[in-house]
Amino acid sequence: MAGLSVVVMAAGKGTRMRSARPKVLHTLAGRPLLQHVLDAAVPLRAERTVVVTGHGADAVERSATAAGVSFARQEPQLGTGHAVAQAAPLLAADGTTLVLNGDVPMIATGTLRALVDESVAAGSLALLTVEVADAHGYGRIVRDPDGAVAAIVEEKDASDAERALREIYTGVLAAPTAKLKGWLAALRSDNAAGEYYLTDVVRLAVAEGIVVTGVAAGDETEVLGVNSAAQLADLERRFQRRAAGRLMEGGVRLAHPARLDVRGELACGSDVEIDVGCVFEGRVTLGDGVRVGGYCMLRDVTVGAGTEIKPYTHVDGGGSTGTGASIGERASVGPFARLRAGARLGADVHIGNFVEVKNSTLGRGAKANHLAYLGDSTVGERVNFGAGSITANYDGAAKHRTVIGDDASIGSNCVLVAPIEVGAGATIGGGSTISRPAPAGQLTVARARQATIAGWKRPTKPVKSDER
């Protein structure tokens, strides 16, 4: 929006969190609280965004990602009015300023836009309010007989009658920037806490004859702040219930909507089924007809149509390289399988229990069904990789690649010492350690000759005297 500035207050310590971590860096659905707030403001296209930091400022500033974001330090922390005053020198001379709290992560972009539009249209102060069943701890909205906002009274300064009010101030407001700067300069700290309250700008605006308006939030959940671990846990479940609702509206079948965690972006085709206890992080795409078994973790992966991810499978396509992972159509992965960054499985591939795949490509119909490791490998179509076999890709200093041609068969308990190539249609005999190329279409065996030692006896423990 033209002439819009955004100020996000993120300086507080969050004492009730009982944590050394700054409050705004605690996570909701896998992202810091502050990042949720910044992301909600991005679609408004503000000309400048200022984050006010204080406790743990260096860590907070490193974590905040938004185009054009700048920072103002609040040291010491002397209240919300003092916080916004630190940002005032960085704001434009005119236009509108939107003030947000860094610990209110579920605020909706549409709500923010409506609040800013109200302030611009009226040229006045607009407050975001909501009615709640229990208003304890919140600033109460006091209205005049005409219904206009007359004041906001903080809990510690409220009378018994004011504490009985249920309409609260959410901590979010929009105001003409020039007027807001003047009000900030006029704030005083003559209150119970000895702080500069941002809420006092209402009194100053009313004194100037400016009508203060209230814009109702969509619901209580989107304006809930986080002040304790219990509140964060409650908000996490509210977030996940909403995520589950959106998935089910799109046709996804969830075995138990309350036992789902989406900590990133989850896109699903039609007829997707997700069992209990699954966690989705980063960017995950599930094609039509995908089934995800119980207690799976999927991060940064694309799964093709008709594939089944069996229970307790762990897919982490992010890793240190961030290359992602992909699984083709009609594949079968798990149970208890692990796919890491760079795993690329073709159509009809089978990856079974206790198989790990890292930075490897498996062609159509390839199988590694039991107790195997494939690292830094290119595996052709219809290859069978036997139980207990591995690619030895690391020599202690560098990684090396293994190439296995189409239709090769690797027996059980084999070690392929990279760099190495196994030709198309080759067979590697069980128990072999292969360190030189295996020719196409041939059987290659590398293992010691079996021998029986006559008269050998197994060692025994000496018998203790008290056991006789």
Notes on the protein architecture:
By secondary structure, the chain is of the alpha/beta class. Helix content is 17%, strand content 31%. The protein is built from eight helices and 36 strands. The strands form six sheets. The chain has an 18-stranded parallel beta sheet that branches. A seven-stranded mixed beta sheet has the order 5-4-1-6-10-7-11, sandwiched between helices. Strands 28-31-34-36 form a four-stranded parallel beta sheet, with no helix packed on it. A hairpin with a 2-residue loop joins strand 2 and strand 3. The N and C termini lie far apart (92 Å). The model has no long low-confidence stretch (mean pLDDT 94).
Tell the overall outline: elongated
| Average residue-wise pLDDT | 94
Q: Biggest sheet, in brief?
A: 18 strands, parallel
End-to-end Cα distance:
92 Å
Q: How does the SSE layout of this entry go?
A:
Elements: E1 4-10, E2 27-28, E3 31-32, H1 33-41, E4 48-53, H2 57-63, E5 69-73, H3 80-87, E6 96-101, H4 109-122, E7 126-131, E8 140-143, E9 149-153, H5 160-163, E10 167-176, H6 177-185, H7 200-207, E11 213-216, H8 229-249, E12 253-254, E13 260-268, E14 273-274, E15 278-286, E16 291-292, E17 297-303, E18 308-309, E19 314-316, E20 325-327, E21 332-333, E22 338-339, E23 344-345, E24 350-358, E25 361-362, E26 367-375, E27 377-379, E28 384-385, E29 390-392, E30 402-404, E31 409-410, E32 415-417, E33 420-422, E34 427-428, E35 433-434, E36 443-444
Parallel strand pairs: 1-4, 1-6, 4-5, 7-11, 12-14, 13-15, 14-16, 15-17, 16-18, 17-19, 17-20, 18-21, 19-22, 20-23, 21-24, 22-24, 23-25, 24-26, 25-27, 27-30, 28-31, 29-32, 30-33, 31-34, 32-35, 34-36
Antiparallel strand pairs: 2-3, 6-10, 7-10, 8-9
